[in-house]
Amino acid sequence: MPQNVDCAELIIRYLTSGSLHNVANDPAAGAGLFAWTESSGIRWLEGWREAFVHCVGMYDSLRGLPEARDISHSSRMLLERSHVELQARIEACEARLSTFNFDDIWLTSAWPSTLPHRAFDRLRHFLINYYRKTYNCWPPAAHGTNDRWLTRELVQRLQTDFGSLYDLYVDRRRGWDKDPGNKTRGDVYMKSLDGDNPVTEALMTIDQKLRCPRIPHPYPLLPATTTVILEGKPLKPSIFSTKTKMMEKRIYHACLESTNSLHVRTEIASNGLVEAFLRFEKTDLVSEGNPREVRQGRWTLIYSILQMLATMSVDTPGLWFTDSPYFLNPRLDACPPWHLKAGQTMEKANPMLSHCWTAPMSWKPEHELT
Q1: In angstroms, rounded to a whole number, what is the distance separating the alpha carbons of residues 156 and 148?
Q2: CA dist., res. 304 & res. 300, Å (int)
Q3: Does this model's pTM top 0.85?
Q4: How far apart are CA 81 and CA 267, in angstroms?
Q5: 95: nearest Cα among 139, 154, 41
Q6: Tell me: the pLDDT tens digits for 26-56?
Q7: What's the number of CA atoms in the CB half-sphere (13 Å) around residue 96?
Q8: Is the pLDDT confidence value at 239 over 60?
Q9: For an engineered disulfide with 212, which of 226, 307, 343, 358 has Cβ 3.0 to 4.6 Å away?
C-alpha cells in the first residue's frame, strides 16, 4: 500500500459505509470500538464518543469482556465516573417522580393564599392515580440488575405527556428578559402581571433546586380575573343550587378559553394525559375559589416535572445510533482523554435541547395568535 494512504481513514470509511460502527446493545462491539478509536494513530473522535456513550449505558455488561481489557486506564476511569454520575441522576429523578414529590418548593413560598399549594397537591395525587392505572402500579416494576424502574422509554413517554400539557397551557407571549439592574436574580426577570410575583419566586426556586436553566416561556395562560368566585369564597357543589352550577360552568368555560387548544396539533389534544387532565380540571374546579391561583398551583407542579425530565430526556447530540433501552446522555466532561485538535468539540446532552426549549420554534408568530 502506498505510504501516503491513511489506513485509519480507510478503515473508518469501511466501518461507516457498512454500519459496522453500530454498537448499540452490543457490549463486546462497543468495548472493541471504544478501545480501537483511542489507540495511537487513530483517535477517531466521533467514533470514540459514540462508543463511550453506549458503553456507559451498557456499563454493567462490560465486566469480564476480553474486548474491555484493551480500553486504556484513562478511558476506564472516565467510563466509571460517567456511569456513577448517570446512576445518581437516575436515582434523583426516581425519587422525585415516584410520588411527583416537589413539596420542598413550598417551604419558601411567598404566596399569601394556600389555594395554590392545595391545587398542587391534588394534582400530584391525580398524577399518581393516572399512572397507576396506566402501568398497573406506580412507580412501575424495576428492570435489570440495578433495581431501576426509570427507563429511557418511560422518560420519553413522560416527556411526551407533560410536553403536551405544557403546549396546551403555556402562555406563548410571555418569557424571561434581561434586566441590567437586577443583579440578585442573575440579571433575569419576568415580564410579570399583577399577582405573578409568588409564581416567579416558586419557578426560580425550582430552577435553583434542580440546577436547571430557566424555561424560556415559564408562565401558564390564566382565566380572566372576572371569574373569581363571589367574594373569594370557595364554592360548595350542591345539586340544589342553580347559582352554583351556573358559576361552575362560567369558571370551566373561562379555563377552557385559557388554553392553546386552537393552536396545538391533534396528537397533543388527543394525548391521554391531556384528556384525563381536562376531565380532572372540570371536576376539581368546584372545590376552590380562585381559578387563577388554582391554575398557578397546578402549573408549578407541571413546571417542576418538566424541569426534572429535562435532566434525563435529551440524548447526546449527533449520535449515529439511538435505538437502545439505556440512557444516552452520560457526563462528557474531560472527554476524550487526549487533546482535541483546533475546531474539534465534544458536544454533550443539554437540558436546553428538551421540549420546552425547542417547542417555540414551531409556534406561530405572535401576531397570528388569537
Answers
A1: 16
A2: 6
A3: yes
A4: 39
A5: 139
A6: 999 999 999 999 998 899 999 999 999 999 9
A7: 23
A8: no
A9: 307
pLDDT at 286: 56
Q: Tens of pLDDT along 78-98?
A: 999 999 999 999 999 999 999
198, β-bridge pairs: none
3-class SS letters over the chain: CCCCCCHHHHHHHHHHHCCCCCCCCCHHHHHHHHHHHCCCCCCCHHHHHHHHHHHHHCHHHHCCCHHHHHCCHHHHHHHHHHHHHHHHHHHHHHHHHCCCCCHHHHHHCCCCCCHHHHHHHHHHHHHHHHHHHHHCCCCCCCECCCCECCCHHHHHHHHHHHHHHHHHHECCCCCEEECCCCHHHCCEEECCCCCCHHHHHHHHHHHHHHCCCCCCCCCECCCCHHHCCHHHCCCCCCCCCHHHHHHHHHHHHHHHHCCCCCCCCHHHHCCHHHHHHHHHHHHHHHHCCCHHHHHHHHHHHHHHHHHHHHCCCCCCCCCCCCCCCCCCCCCCCCCCCCCCCCCCCCCCCCHHHCHHHHHHHHCCCHHHCC
Distance CA 255, CA 232 (A): 17
Tell me which residue has cell 482523554. Answer: 337
Instruction: Count Cβ neighbours within 10 Å for each residue of 262-288 and write b for 16 or more, e otherwise.
Output: eebeeebbebebbebbbebbeebbbeb
Q: Which residue has the cell 416535572?
A: 305
**Which cell numbers hold the place of 247?**
358559576
- Residue 176: beta bridge partners? 190
Binned at pLDDT 50, 70 and 90, residue 345 comes out as: confident
* Among 36, 46, 58, 72, CA closest to 337: 72
Closest CA to 56 of 35, 76, 36, 40: 76
Give dist(CA 206, CA 304) in Å, integer. Answer: 6
In this predicted structure, the answer to whether residue 367 has a pLDDT above a threshold of 60 is: no
Given a contact cutoff of 8 angstroms between Cβ atoms, the answer to whether 104 and 110 are in contact is: no
